[in-house]
Amino acid sequence: MRISVFVDGANFFFMQKQKLQWFADPKKLLDFIGTKGEINEAFYYIGQDAPPEAKQQAFLDALPTMGYSLVSKQIKTIYDTRTGATKRKANLDIEIVLDMFNTIDHYDMAVLVSGDGDFERALTLLRARGKQLLVVATEGFIARELRNVAGRHYLDMQSIKVDIEKTRY
């Protein structure tokens, strides 16, 4: 089975930091997914500072050596005139969906590492096109809509902690 992996970097990071309280090794995650078939492509989508901090740059530089194609976008600061608050954001959802469909002939299974409900429609359409799906997220950090479309094709990161936990920092 040919597999393509799509990692929503921001969602993946906050899922670990806020919910799991432990960190996954992106290379170990890819190795685990590789037990389900042949990984043809693996994309890692991430917002980055301009210029990136040294620690972030080291992580970005390491991703291709782990087997990921890096797709990045500069983080923007958004000012809310109503509340006066600022928010830093680099939304890459559209890039993820475009890559899912632009590479659709290259895989039999799409693996999405994200709990973002915005991907519900894309996954529904992929399934309608005959693609198998696997959503990797964790309980309490996956939107109901995404959980509903994944059904039995959902993998809780907590259940594979022993296989993917980062052991060195």
Strand content: 25-35%
Mean pLDDT over the residues: 91
Helix-strand pattern: EHHEHEEEHEHEHEH
Structural class based on helices, strands and sheet pairing:
alpha/beta
Strand order of the largest sheet: 3-2-1-6-7-8
CATH topology: Rossmann fold
Quickly name the level 1 CATH class.
Alpha Beta
- Report the helical percentage: 25-40%
How big is the Rg?
Answer: 16 Å
CATH superfamily (homologous) name: 5'-nuclease
Main β-sheet description? 6 strands, parallel
Low-confidence stretches: none
Total number of β-strand segments?
8
- End-to-end CA span: 33 Å
| Total individual domains | 1
CATH-scheme architecture = 3-Layer(aba) Sandwich
Describe the structure.
- With 169 residues, the chain is of the alpha/beta class.
- It has one domain (2-164): Rossmann fold.
- The protein has seven helices and eight strands; from the N terminus they run E-H-H-E-H-E-E-E-H-E-H-E-H-E-H.
- The chain has helices at residues 9-20, 26-33, 54-66, 93-102, 120-128, 144-150, 161-164, and strands spanning 2-8, 38-48, 69-74, 76-79, 86-89, 109-113, 132-137, 154-156.
- It has a six-stranded parallel beta sheet, with helices on both faces. A two-stranded antiparallel ribbon has the order 4-5.
- It is globular, with a radius of gyration of 16 Å.
- The model has no long low-confidence stretch (mean pLDDT 91).
